[in-house]
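Entry 12.
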Amino acid sequence: MLNLQELSFCGSNFNRAAHLRKEKNSNKLGSSGKTLILWRGKPLVDENNLKLVFLPLSHEIISQSQTSRIFLGQSKGIDYFAHDISDWEPSNLEPNTPSSFLDDTTQHHPSLQKHERFNDLRLIMTQLPAEDAGLVSTAKALFAWHKSHQFCAKCGHKSVSSQAGWQRDCSTCESPHYPRTDPVVIMLITDGNNLLLGRSPHWPKKMYSCLAGFIEPGETLEAAVAREVKEETNIEIGAVSYVTSQPWAFPTSLMFGCIASATSHQITIDPVELDDAIWVSKETLVKAYSGIDVGILPARQGAIAEFLIRNWVKDTLVNDVLGLKK
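Predicted 3D structure (tokens):
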């Protein structure tokens, strides 16, 4: 059986308490509740146990920075918030550091314990408890939306946060704006005992993953899968089956995992989209998962791509999703 708990950000059941957002929008909330601190998309983590750090609302780090706040919801009667302190400049931050797929640097704020540092969420997501992962994924996505939607799409004037971070209102025409989620299809394409995998130029060496792409307006999941596979590799496919979804806060996506069989085999890549695309046998992937160097590395654990690949290798997708015998 498919174990969806293996997917990061999918097992959280915290109460979002949407009915309280107007009330929690106030800047005078007192000191009750806990808050998660993020710095430029990185959550605060206790490096002794690799768990998120939740601070009291009265903590000095909040008053020291120009923070943005979001009300995340409630759990066991406790209010949970998130604060963004991206205006803080660490003393040891190297200027003009190029962006990379993974950021293995950590940052320490002087108001915090030495073992409390800001970490890249990609590096710790599989080690977080389900509820913590859901909270930080929500916070990261919302802060990314606020950063990229500072102005009204209707009249162009400045907008301001409202509804405790779940809405932005234009200060001029009063138009409301709501958080954006970008739908993405990610697909496992098979050809008998082989799997179609591709890689982007900016990925770590040897890393290969499922093909993926944004769903366009007026397009179904099935049509998006077929179009993206054709555009990126010139491969034709048959019927598409839906597997599962995963919220993906890098920055604001919802991934729809699908599976389909190829009806052609010759690959012609789109060099703008892909650095490479190859057919990989199940036996080769078994060796890769065993730690044998076969020239490729499967997608990162916790991501829906790796979930699809691993379950295909184990025949779980064939049995559970397609209802077929091996």
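Annotation: The chain has a mean pLDDT of 91. Residues 4-88+102-148 form one domain.
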